[in-house]
Design a protein that fits this description.
Elements (H helix, E strand, L loop, with lengths): L4 H14 L5 H16 L1 H5 L2 H30 L1 H33 L9 H23 L6 H10 L1 H4 L7 H16 L2 H11 L6 H15 L6 H5 L17 H7 L11 H25 L6 H10 L9 H15 L7 H10 L12
Helix pairs in contact: 4-5, 5-6, 10-11, 10-13, 13-14, 14-17, 15-16
């Protein structure tokens, strides 16, 4: 009875895998059936690539089971280390997902010719945050280049997570705590900015505008929240002299920089360029958010939007965050690009006393 195709293929595979030298009988057998193999496409499809693929799936399944057992062991015996380990694993997944999203957005901008200001709010925010994360993570990646430097990196990550890690690798409790720390550092510069505004307004020739700005600063210093109309009433001072982006003093620009988490220890022209760039980016984000509608954001997105714009959302309810964000957008939607300086100063004017003081549009 003639050999079937399956049995023939299995014998050929055994000969190849075992490496047995063909004797006379086997040589005769192979020579008789070589032409048969070429005539059966099913035999040709049973290739080494499929064997490798099946072997890879088998190894992958085994590794997955081992990983589950390893995680269970860590969770039982070393719960604190497991929490850190789990945070890093999930953080890398989130970072990889964000990198894929950013790549898609960049491809869309290049292939379809979509400018940045025409992107959606979530796309703009993704690009903005990813760029900041990469800039922060770059020094840590450079440290890992020398041999045996990984041990130093682990020490830095364990003892200084806020300084060296990006939010992807923070635990939920760390995110809340670190956001509070950053807000406290930012709030330390509220009073210097207000005092700088009062000092700058002294040489203003228009007495009516000067009085309005002085009253606005005094109101915030006394613990009250200004109205949107009171902020917009002094917008003329923020497009030209003395508080416009190109007319502002260097000392005042250094006071404003920490509000955006920018270092003030740079040459004057770099500080002015960075403030102007971040202010315009924030204005474009506000316009995109107005097109989308703040009600379309979930609670985490609303809290992140509020934190970027000057307040600590973790001390507020969801309704208070949405109320404050609505007031911010009322100011932002009324401004031109030449008045972006007023948007930066609103990081103090609108947020310094919220929600303790009366807040009315």
């Amino acid at each position: 009875m003639a050999l079937s195709c399956t049995s023939l293929c299995s014998r050929l595979a055994l000969v190849r895998l075992c490496g047995v030298r063909a004797n006379g009988t086997s040589s005769t057998f192979l020579s008789q059936h070589t032409s048969c193999v070429s005539r059966f496409p099913l035999c040709r499809s049973y290739s080494a690539s499929k064997v490798r693929h099946g072997f890879g799936r088998y190894v992958g399944a085994k590794l997955q089971k081992l990983n589950i057992k390893y995680e269970g062991f860590l969770k039982r015996r070393f719960p604190r280390f497991f929490a850190l380990y789990h945070t890093f694993v999930e953080g890398f997944k989130l970072l990889y997902r964000d990198a894929q999203d950013v790549s898609k957005i960049k491809s869309k901008m290049i292939s379809d010719g979509v400018p940045f200001h025409d992107l959606s709010y979530r796309e703009m925010e993704k690009l903005r945050q990813f760029r900041r994360d990469v800039i922060k993570a770059t020094p840590l990646m450079l440290i890992t280049i020398p041999p045996f430097a990984n041990y130093l990196v682990f020490v830095l990550m364990y003892y200084y997570p806020r300084q060296v890690l990006i939010p992807h690798f923070w635990t939920p409790s760390q995110k809340v705590a670190f956001r509070g720390v950053y807000h406290c550092l930012r709030a330390e510069h509220h009073m210097p900015v207000l005092q700088g505004m009062q000092k700058t307004s002294s040489p203003v020739q228009d007495g009516h505008l000067q009085n309005r700005l002085q009253h606005l600063c005094a109101k915030v210093q006394n613990g009250e929240n200004p109205k949107v109309s009171e902020i917009l009433a002094v917008r003329g001072l923020f497009s030209g002299s003395p508080l416009g982006m190109r007319r502002m003093s260097v000392d005042h620009m250094r006071r404003l920089s920490p509000l955006l988490f920018l270092t003030p220890r740079l040459p004057a022209f770099l500080i002015g360029r960075r403030l102007n760039s971040h202010g315009r980016e924030l204005l474009l984000l506000d316009r995109a958010l107005s097109r989308l509608g703040p009600h379309q954001l979930d609670d985490s997105e609303v809290r992140q939007a509020c934190f970027i714009r000057g307040i600590n959302p973790d001390s507020l309810s969801g309704g208070q965050c949405r109320e404050w964000l609505s007031q911010w957008l009322q100011v932002s939607s009324s401004l031109k690009e030449s008045e972006v300086s007023l948007l930066l100063h609103s990081l103090v004017l609108l947020s310094a006393n919220y929600p303790t003081g009366p807040s009315q549009p």
